[in-house]
Each structure stands twice: as C-alpha cells, then as structure tokens.
Amino acid sequence: MTVEVGSFNYRVFSDSAPVMEVAWAQKSGLGWRGKHTLLLSRQAGSMFFLGEMYVDLPLPVDDAIGNYCGSCSKCIDICPTEAIIAPYQVDARRCISYLTIELKDSIPESLRPLIGNRIYGCDDCQLVCPWNKFARITNENDFHVRNGLDDVSLIELFGWDQETFETKLAGTPIRRIGHPQWLRNIAVGLGNAPYSNEIVKALQARLDDASALVREHVQWALQQQNTKRTATEENIP
Ligand code: SF4
C-alpha cells in the first residue's frame, strides 16, 4: 500500500479501544444494524469481529446498504431479560453480556433469576437470528474451544482456585473479568439450577470467600436452593 500512496499514519483496532465500530461499519455499507443493534451481514450474519484502521488518507466514501430485518422480531422475543426494549434499542443495564462481563459490582437481584446458567455473556439474540444461518465456523484456532470449556459442570468451574482460573483461561477474554467476578457469575448460575445436594455443598464451601461480592452472591444462591428444596419436599406425597 505504501508503494501506491506513499507513507501515511494509521492505527489498527479490533474490539481493543472505544471505537464506534458498529455505527461506522453500518455507514460504510458492511451491513445493517439489526433490531438487536449488532451489525448484520447478508453473507456472514453477525458472528464476526469488526476490525478498523484509522488512516489519514482521503479515501472514497462508501454508501450504506438497506435494512433486511423486515417484520422479524425473534431477537426481541427471545431476550431472557427483555433488554431489547424496542427495535434497535438495547437497555445495556439489562443485557446479560453487560451484567456478567462489564458490571463489576453486585448483579441486581431482580435480574439474577433471568440469567439462568449463562456465566459469561449471552448470544441468544444472535443464535435465534435467521441471518446467522450464513455464519461459518472459523478456522482460526484462537477462537476454538480450549481446555474442554464446552463440557464442564458449573460445580467444577466453581471449585477452581485463583491459580487454576488464571492458568486455564490464559489468553482468553474471560480471564479479564477476574476470579471474584467469575465466581459471582457461577454462584448465580448455581442458584438458578434445580435443587441439588452437591450444589449446596459447593456453595457452602465458599461462604467464607475472601471477596464480599462472592459471599453475597453465594448467600443468595443458597437461599434459592433452599427455596427449591422446600418446594420439592412439599410436593412429596
Ligand atoms: S432476529 Fe430478526 S429482527 Fe433480530 S436482528 Fe435478526 S433478522 Fe433482525
């Protein structure tokens, strides 16, 4: 490129700085914003990362393309926390990806039961989207499953100490949330699971966790388990 245009300044991004990447991708014709607000491509659905280059070259401007959501509202209907409050409008404070990844504090109690067993993000709005039938599994090894994370129980993950957490998740974005937030999220998932003696034991083992955030969520999860145990016993004839 430098042969064609001479030297120029640039900076490259991919989910690595607060760049208005979806808005610009839409304006530049890479796709349209779906009703879930993510970028959709007719060829690739929404399961991809956007990359950007800031350059100081006078490049030609591309045109935006049309919107192909039509009358579909599957993403709005499936959102577990009703975070898509209107087409093209997400209340980020309700989004499970925000609650489990970005939020550092306590998860609002009213939303915890709606999170189910999602311990790091949520892709329900993308999974249900008809355009993702065009998405393809990448050959990029960095995006493939590591350390059997797609086949492991919440109880086992909850038993990981800080060192195991750091080792098993090295090089993944999950590690960035830190061990206490990881345990907070799993505690919510365990609280939402059907009653089980093993779950109660796993939760009790963390009642004295060093983190107040973890302790509070563990107490909540134990209350949930207790309520379910009582309901089960009451139904036994
Ligand atoms: S699920 Fe339907 S409404 Fe939502 S983004 Fe996909 S096509 Fe658009």
Structure description:
By secondary structure, the chain is mostly helical. Among the domains are: 2-55, no CATH class; 148-237, Alpha Horseshoe (Leucine-rich Repeat Variant). It is built from eleven helices and six strands. It has helices at 2-5, 21-27, 74-78, 96-102, 112-115, 124-127, 154-158, 162-168, 179-192, 197-204, 212-235; strands at residues 10-13, 32-33, 39-40, 52-55, 84-86, 89-90. A two-stranded antiparallel ribbon has the order 1-4. The chain has a two-stranded antiparallel ribbon with strand order 2-3. Strands 5-6 form a two-stranded antiparallel ribbon. The termini are far apart. The mean pLDDT is 94. Residues 34-36, 40, 69, 72-75, 128-131 line the site of iron/sulfur cluster.
List descriptors.
two-stranded antiparallel ribbon, Leucine-rich Repeat Variant, single chain, mainly alpha, two-stranded antiparallel sheet
Give a brief outline of the structure:
With 237 residues, the chain is mainly alpha-helical. Among the domains are: 2-55, no CATH class; 148-237, Leucine-rich Repeat Variant (Alpha Horseshoe). Helix content is 38%, strand content 7%.
